């Protein structure tokens, strides 16, 4: 496979990292021959070590939207906003929350991304993994975890008419509380029956920083880069968050951000 040098200090949404040679997957056959490869997509929910190895990116040929009789097929490299705009323009329901989420389809499916009670699994029909189509029910699709092993190349959405403008307004209102600094989005998954942001705030970590890595003053569960945060800064802050919350509540927070060493 070809490689491409990507500087994660500019490419990732958190703006932390270093230049790393990254494999470029151009065909489904490439995915079959890729072993121990980790797809980085648009690196929107990732914290990538300068020492990370075996990273890969889907070629632009996997960025497309194709309408069929009963479903909408979308390539895994298609960005969230492009999917949102297509569905809105064609009065299709199911992905209204994507306007408030960054990333490309592959990553959104991989982590079963969503907002509150709305998530990708609810509107998906099937998923192409390593060139083979699987029904959505083949995967567990739990909270922020699809259970999918392998490389996601495309997905098909149910073709349901009736874009939900009320849901869009709700998602936009939620997004207003998100920080504007470089961020990986939610740092931790919400534990059952509680919120990671509330727990972090309760132990005095809202706005707390190590170096230039910080838990946002606007929303405590957002890990942000105030300028020149290092990988080590971010890891130290994440570990501190876990430690303080566990000591105070007995709850061990689980990372939503994907950390690639």
TrEMBL record:
Its main location: cytoplasm. It comes from Helicobacter marmotae. This is UDP-N-acetylenolpyruvoylglucosamine reductase. The lineage of its organism: Bacteria, Pseudomonadati, Campylobacterota, Epsilonproteobacteria, Campylobacterales. Belongs to the MurB family. InterPro entries: FAD-bd_PCMH-like_sf, FAD-bd_PCMH_sub2, MurB, MurB_C, MurB_C_sf. The active site is at 144, 186 (proton donor), 256. Gene3D superfamilies: 3.30.465.10, UDP-N-acetylenolpyruvoylglucosamine reductase, C-terminal domain. PANTHER family: UDP-N-ACETYLENOLPYRUVOYLGLUCOSAMINE REDUCTASE.
